[in-house]
Amino acid sequence: MNRLLVLVRHGQSDWNLKNLFTGWKDPDLTELGVEEAVEAGRRLKALGLQFDVAFTSNLVRAQRTCTLLLREIGQPGIETFEDEALNERDYGELAGLNKDDARARWGEDQVHIWRRSYDVQPPGGESLKDTVARVLPYYMREILPRVMRGERVLVAAHGNSLRALVMVLDGLTPETIPSMELATGIPLVYRLKADTTVEDKKVLAA
């Protein structure tokens, strides 16, 4: 059985380029982001990987990454589920603000705590802990059972929603996960054992 699970953070978005807190706001990909999504597809195709089902968020940058990637590997029509459970962390009042402007308003230390702590919420938003609590039940209910049945599963989502999955798969802790970064458009290829733990992991970087 394959037990294949591939995680891909969306390509660069317009707000990534502008250094804005994005969260549940819905900017599209930049030209570079489109290239990153297509290149992710090329790298997966080069390994001969195909998928039975895909999952993505309710946000266009992840959806478009998923579409471009699947088109590149010749699978544009496979079943794809979209759900807000896989959305980026909600940054609340920070969403739409330039990160430098946020530092000027609240201070370097406070913004660093909001960005890099595990359980401190920005004003009106989610902590990483909150995001994990939203993503993991969806993973356990909808995604993992398909992987364990031998389906080949693609998840195209966001830095923080995917960090929630990597936290479980890689055995990271609340102390180590905040410093872990996921690059845009770089596939993480997992194969799972029969007990749902990781048998093998490949990072398809350039």
Automatic annotation (TrEMBL):
Major enzyme class: isomerase
Translocase in keyword set: no
Superkingdom as given in the UniProt entry: Bacteria
Active site (record annotation): H10 (tele-phosphohistidine intermediate), E88 (proton donor/acceptor)
GO MF annotation: an example: phosphoglycerate mutase activity
SMART domains the UniProt entry points to: PGAM (SM00855)
Pathway note: Carbohydrate degradation; glycolysis; pyruvate from D-glyceraldehyde 3-phosphate: step 3/5
Residues binding substrate: 9-16, 22-23, 61, 88-91, 99, 115-116, 159-160
This enzyme's EC code(s): 5.4.2.11
Feature type site, description Transition state stabilizer: H158
Subunit note: Homodimer.
Annotated protein name in UniProt: 2,3-bisphosphoglycerate-dependent phosphoglycerate mutase
